[in-house]
Amino acid sequence: MRVFARIFIPAWLLIACSVLPGYAQNDVVSKAFLMGKINYMRDTSFTKVDKRYTDREIYLKKETYSAYIKMYAAALKDGVQLTMISGVRSFYDQCCKWDGKWNAAEFSGIKNTDEKINRMLRWWSMPGTSRHHWGTDMDLTNIKPAWYNTVQGIKTYNWLVKYAAAYGFYQPFNANRPVGYQEEKWHWSYVPLARIYLREYLKEISYTDFAGFYGYHSAQKMDVIATRVSAINPACK
Q: Residue 94: is it exposed, middle or buried by C-beta count within 10 angstroms (0-12/13-18/19+)?
């Protein structure tokens, strides 16, 4: 989802972000994995993205990364320079972002919890519901909607719409969905893996699994599994 440079992060969350256990996921799709409760830096099914593709420290599932490298090369031949700006985020990474936004000036003045959560859910995923937890999804090049009205933005997006599917990538938050997050032209998902994880998520995760962040009690009331996790481009299902 959208990334902002300065947010308030509670101290207890900074501690939580630093003490995650490591494990090799292999072929097990556990609840912990589906909700992002992993240490992707120590999980052998993830890999770090090379600096030629990003100026940030980003990890992805190995299969996702391999497919991205091929797509990147094809785009470059057509004069489109892709840059990766976000990859996997753990549950605890998402807690840092979600709770930081909860206390940020743009939302802190909203006293009605339902209204606050609905406003936040336009762009921000509740921890445990983000596709970024799986290492299949990435944000590319620019996360400002206005950029996609520029010449380069139009060229980049049109190339992705036309060719990304050939490499397994689809836009989960496309236009004209009746519910869900706002359109995100920068967010692309490696569907051969993400489709499997989505299917398992919908089977395994329930609202009793949500805890540990501001507003988590409202997850069921907002029905975020139906109105956010499932509210995606049909091509991604």
A: buried
Are the CB atoms for 68 and 53 separated by under 8 Å? yes
**Per residue of the chain (237 residues), what is the pLDDT tens digit?**
444 443 344 443 443 444 444 434 445 689 999 999 999 999 999 999 999 999 999 999 999 999 999 999 999 999 999 999 999 999 999 999 999 999 888 888 898 888 999 999 998 999 999 999 999 999 999 999 999 999 999 999 999 999 999 999 999 999 999 999 999 999 999 999 999 999 999 999 999 999 999 999 999 999 999 999 999 999 999
Which residues does 112 contact at the CB level (< 8 Å), separation at least 6?
A: none
Q: How far apart are CA 45 and CA 52, in angstroms?
A: 21
- Give, as one character, the DSSP assignment of residue 149: G
SS3 129: coil
Query: Does pTM surpass 0.85?
Result: yes
Dump the DSSP string for 25-77. -TT---HHHHTT-S-TTT-TTEEEPPTTT-SS--EEEHHHHHHHHHHHHHHHH
Sign of the torsion formed by the C-alpha atoms of 222, 227, 230 and 232: negative
Helix axes 191-204, 62-77, angle to 10 degrees: 140
CA 182, CA 171: separation in Å to the nearest integer? Answer: 12
